[in-house]
Structures are given as structure tokens and as C-alpha cells.
Amino acid sequence: MKTNDLILRTTTALIAFILLAFSIYLFLAGHNAPGGGFIGGLMTAAAIILMYMTYGLDTMNKVIPLNFKLLVPIGLLIATLTGVGSFVFDQPFLSQTYTYVHLPILGDAELATAMLFDLGVYLTVIGITLTIILSIADDN
Amino acid sequence: MIYAVFAPLVMTLLIPFFNKWKDKIHTGWFLLPIPLFIFLYFVQFIGEGFSPVAESYQWIPSLNISIDFYLDGLSLLFVLLISGIGTLVLLYSIYYLHKSERLGHFYIYLFIFMSSMLGVVLSDNVYVLYTFWEFTSISSFLLIGFWHYRERSRYGALKSMLITVFGGLSLFAGIVTLTYITGTTSIQEMINQKDIIIDSPLFPLILIFIILGAFTKSAQFPFHIWLPDAMEAPTPVSAYLHSATMVKAGIFLIARFSPILAGEPMFFIIVSLFGIITLCWGSYMAVRQTDLKGILAFSTISQLGMIMAMLGFGTKAAIFAAVFHILNHATFKGSLFMIAGIVDHETGSRDIRKLGGLMTFMPISATLALFGVFSMAGFPLPFLNGFYSKEMFFEASLHLDGYGGQFIPFFQQAIPYLAVFGSIFTFVYSMYFFFGTFRGEAKMGELPKKPHEAPIGMLISPFILVLGVILIGLFPNLVNGTFIAHSAEAIYGSAVEKDIYFWHGLTYPPLIMSIIVVVLGTLLALTRQKWAGIYTIFPRNLSFNEVYNYIVDKTETASTKITNKYMTGSLRHYVLYILIAILVVSGVVFFLTNGFAIDTSGLSTLKLSDVPDILVGLTMAIAAIGTIFTNNRLSAIIILGVVGYGLAILFVIYRAPDLALTQLIVETVTVAIFLLCFYHLPDLKKIKEKPSITLTNSIISIGFGALMTIIAISAHSSKWFEPISNYFLETSKPLGGGYNVVNVILVDMRGLDTLFEITVLGIAALAIYGMIKLRRDKEAK
Description:
Chain B: Residues 123-405 form the NADH:quinone oxidoreductase/Mrp antiporter transmembrane domain. The structure holds 2 protein chains of 2 kinds. By secondary structure, chain A is mainly alpha-helical.
């Protein structure tokens, strides 16, 4: 018998998006405020897990047809490539730099190569957390 | 010279190809020229005006190790023995070993041995000598175990390996010490630095190390026990290795180092005492044997003891006699081994109780044996070389150099009596060997084969050796000036000129001793049946084989026991060992270096606003203690969560927002994973431990906690360097472009750490995934 969990589903629909938005904020704000790829990734993973808990594995596998295991190598690849990229500019491995660009609407914004590295961390952490928890949860 | 030494070794590479045709031509025929050429090459050095020859080849110059060959009289005597008897043994083995045997293996082992033995006697560099020395041990091991499907062969091979390698390693210690003192690796240069070595406080150590090496190799008491068991080897091997060459390597070693060591009272006592004991013990035990080769093995032991004793005496006459006897022993013992092999080969048995009356069947072998045996017994006849060296031995035992000390004069007086005692038994077992085999009644029924004379090819080698016995007996001075004198000079250090005569007159004491030996020996040999019962009284259980077996057994069982004791397979015990080790090592270092320090100056003062910290801290402490005492897994997980969240709060209080965030989320995730696993775990049972175990566990835990606390306090109290954090605070914005210093450090300044941390996490995730998936697949199967 399926329990009626309407309240949970409704609140999850709201909270999950807030969580996702907050996690992206944490990720983007990392360079200048508390946050960063690691916390952001964990938070995103938390949001996705909340959805899994509410809607069940089968539903979620339809909604997010994504193999989270793939995120681990992708993230690691991005992180490594940002390091290798510094060779192109004749710099040591993992040298970072930053610059300011003027964007049409947002005005002056800071762009740092460290952000790319953090993106790698972010994706890896999401992949890791979801792989671990889903493979344990999936196990009978 | 280097070609001569390495020729057999190079030849081993070709042996497998020769071996392909072994059905048509016996592999030995291809190899026979090698030792013969080596022999002929070295024969040209013989002569009155011989002077040492040196050759040098680089090997490891940076370690001062080069392949230096030094051919002096001593080396020459040995290389001639090795190559000469090697040729004869090879010839003999062609007839002895059947084509169905693994001939390739046999000759490869034999040639490795020949090369290494030549290397041992020619090397001037101690390390090269040691290398060859161990090669002789290894090839001897392979040869003894040649018939590896026999249990006794394997036992004998292992025993000889253990004992000789023990001695070899001791020799290694000796030469390392010698190089350390003298700074050279050349034996000749060490001899020049004799005074430095003798004055060194390490001298007794060197002496013991080298003597141990020589005694184990040369089967001296009490390391003689491997030699009788090595008789499981094919007879050509016994004749070659265990009578003429390898067992003389120890003799060679003592002779080689004599210019350094001899003349010291300690050297005299150890070498001659053990030599004499070996002489007596070996000849006493030989009479007890029933196996022909067993008799010869103990005979070899006893003769080696005699040579060793003479080297120990260190007088001019004794060293001359020793060198002479090395040559004589090689001739008659080699021939006797070959005849024992012939008897075995033609009758199918070596048991002297089954043999007898073979003279009519094997007249030639019997004649050859007759000469060998009487030479070995030292019978006073002018055509037996054994007599000369035995008489010289008696003479040497009567004229010893005086040494100080209380024990030595007594010992010196006892030596001639012991020598006569040993020689009487030598006479007895020699007669026993000959008459037991060739005279008396033939017991045809007990022999596996009908006895008949050996093929002529088999008889050539013992014939040549016996010819040597007679020739040296008839013209002893022929070998004297040409190379015995040179050998003795190499050992003694100065010229040794001596003529050998058969007749010294009736009142000459050594002759009287010889006559006593013959008379008493004949009496004892005739009445052997009556007194043979003495062997059931002594040694009975006092044999050194028992000691050896006891040691080997005990070592095995004791190490098994010890390993089983601490390798319990219980992780609890291993963790205990690790913790105790850390506790003891760190604690001792702390104590010794006086490392404990408390410095309160760097601490902040406690204020009213700190109350939350203390409360959080207290809660965490209580929760931590609570986990120890809870019996419920669920509550343990939740209480552990309290500690984690408390830590997050502390991070907030101590202004580490990134850490606090991470800690909060990680703690949540771990608690969630704990709860996921929780369903699969069995109930947590209250484990009833013995109070003593609980007590040790708590003592160690408390001790470990205390240690960590002390280390933390001390580390905090001693600030030796300016922290690097100021640099990060200053450069975070200008260099990294961010205000979040923690994040800038993580992704920019120390990005490599982060890269590998996420790699670690990735591996962990894949491992968990794999573990669960693979297990599921396995269950599906």
C-alpha cells in the first residue's frame, strides 16, 4: 500500500529548488565568501537525494536520466585539465590567474581560472556522493 | 689465468647442446678436455725457480673489488689437485653414470663447482674469494641432492647447505672486519699489514670468524656432521668434492690466512685442539660405520683434522707436513672413493656387512685398494706416501713451539698421545675397510648383483691415483722441491727447505710411534668384534646429529609457536600492538628528549562570552563517553552525530564558516550512511570480556589519549617558526583574486592537494560501487 505523502511531495518540490539554487550560490560565491566547489557539490547532492527520497528511485531515474558515476571522471578531468592548461601559457602545473571582464547586464565581474578548477571539484563531489548513497540504497 | 678459471663456467652454457647427443656419445667425453687443459696449463708453472704470478681484472672498481688472481705455491698445489683430480673424476664418471641419468644437470653442477673452486684458491681479493666460496656451497648442495627423489639426499643436501652457509656468512663477517681494519681488499696487502691486524682489538673476532668459516667447510668437529650425510651424492662427487677439493677449502683458508693469524696462542689452541679432536673423533667413529662411503667420510674428517692440527702447530716442520699430507690425502682418498664406487657399481651394495671375499672377483680393484688403504693407515713401507706425512706429523707433534699460559704446556704434552690414539683408529678402520670388503667369505646370496671386475675405463682413474701414491712414496723428493716447498713457503712466510727420507734410524721417536700404531692397530683390528660394543655405550645419544636435528626442529617449532602467539588473526590484537608501539616509542622519546613543555603565554584568557564553547565542549565529551557504554547501535550512531554537530558548532564559534558548513553536511551524510548500513548489521551485543582484558584495553586507551594530549599541549607550547598564514592573508586577494582565503588556498595556492583529495573520494566511490555491484553479481551466480 502506498502512503499518501502529498505534503512531503509538495514541500519537496519547493525546497529542492531552493536548495539547488542555494548550492549554486555557494559554488559561485566560494571565492569571496564561505562556500566553494566542495560545499556546493554536497549541497546539490543533498537536494537531489531529497528528491530521490520523496519520489523514489524509479521516478527519479526517469526525470534525471543521468549516470552519476560519469560525473566523477568528468569532474576529475576538468580539474586536471585546468592544471594542464597552464602549460599552454608556459606556467607551472595548476597556476591560476583571474581577470575582470565587463558583462553587458551584470557589469564588472571577476572571472578566475580557479573557478574552472572548482567546477571540477563540484562535479566530482556530486558524482561521488550520489554514487555512494544510491548504490547503497539500491542494494537489497 | 682468468681463462682457466672461467673456462668450466663458460662451458656450462654449451653442456645442454652436448647433452642432446648423450644417447650416442656420453656427455662427459666432450667435457674431459677442459680440466685436462687447465691441468696442463698449470703444470708448466711447476719448477724449482717458481715465483708468484699475479693478474688483475676490473670488476667493481668503486668498491675496490677487482678480480685479482694470485698464483703462489699454495694456490698452485690446489689448482693442480682440482684440475688433475677433476680430470680423473670426469673420466671415472663417464663410466659410472648411466646415460639415463640427467647428465646435463650433473656436469653443469660439476663445472660450476670446478670454476668456483679454482676461483677460491686463486683469488687474492677477499670479496671475490667469498663469492667463489659461496658458489662452491651452492654447487655442492646441488650435487649432493642430485638424486633429489631420495629423501636422504634432500636431507643431506639441506644439512650441508645450512652448515656451510652458516660458516660462509661467518667468513664474510671476518673479511668485512679485515677490510675495515686494513682498508684493503687484497690478501697479500693484508699480510703486509699483519701488525695492524694483530694489534687491533677486533683481532679475536676476526680469528673466530675465519676459523668458523674454515671449520664448517672442512668438516671439523663439531661441524663434521654434514659430511657423512653428503655421501648420498653420486660417488664421483664424493670422490671429488668430499675428499679432494671442497673439504680442503677450509684447510686452504686457514693456510692462506696463516701468515696473518699463525703465531698467536689463540690460533694455536683453537686450530690444533679442534684439529686433534677431529682426528680422534673421526677415526673413532669411522670404525663404527657399516657403509663403505660412511667409513671414508669419517676417514676424511679425521684426516682433515690431522692437517688442520698441523696448520695449527704452525712450526716449519708441521706446515711442511701439512702441505705434503694435503697432496697425499688427495691421491689415496680419491682412489679409495672410486674403488668404493666400483664396489657399489659392480655388486649393488655398499654395506660392508653384506660384502666380503671380493678379491677373487675383482683382483685389480682389490690391489688398487690395498695400496690406498695402507697408505691411508700410514703403514711404514717405502712406497706408500701416507707413511711419510704421518711420520712427519708425529715428528711435528713432538716439537712444538713454546707458548705461554697455564693450559698450553699441558696441552702440548698431550698432543703426541692424542695423535697416536687417532692414528691407531685410523689403522683399524683402514684394515676394516679393506679386509671387510675384499677378504673373508663371499656372501653371494645377499648381493643384488653378481660381482665381477669393473670395466677398464672405470679403473683408469684410481689406477693413476694409486700410481701417484707409489711414485710419491718412492721418490718423495720429486714433488718436494718443485712445489711442496713453494706451498709451505707461501704458508710459513719464509723458505722451507726439507728433504724427505724414509729411514731415520731405529731410535727415531716418530718411527717408534708408527710401530706402536701398527702393533696396537693390528691387535684392535683383529679383535674388533669383541670391543665393538663400546659404540652402544659411547656416543649413543651424544652424537652431534641429534644436536643438529634438535636445533633444526626446535627452531621450526619455536618460531611457529611464537608466530602463532602474536599472529592471532584478530584485528583487535593488531590494533593493540600498534597502539602500544606508538605509546612506548613516543613516550620513551618524549622522556629522553625532555620534550614536555607547557607555555601559558600563548593562551587566550577565559571570558564570560566563552561559556557556549565550554558547554558545547562538555556536551561533546559526554557524548563521546556515552558511545563507549551504549549497547544499542542506533543510539551509538546518534550520539556520535552529537559529537559531529558539536564540532560544527565549535567551528562556527572559532570563525571557520567553510569548515562548519562542510562539517555539517559531511556529518549528516555519514550519519545517513551509517543508518543505511544499520539495517544490514547484526545486533550489537554486550561483549562479556574478562576483567583483565577490559582493564588492559582501558589502560592503553587512556594512556594513548593522555599521550596525544601531552603532545598537543607541548606542540602548542613550543613555537619555533613564524606561521605562514600571514602570507596567505596578505596575498589572497592580490594573487588569488578572492577574499575567501580558505577557498583560495584550496583551489589556487594548494590546488594539487585538492586535486588528489577529490581523486581519493572518486576512488572511494567507485570502490563502494564496485564492492556492492560485484557482490551482487556473485550472489546471482
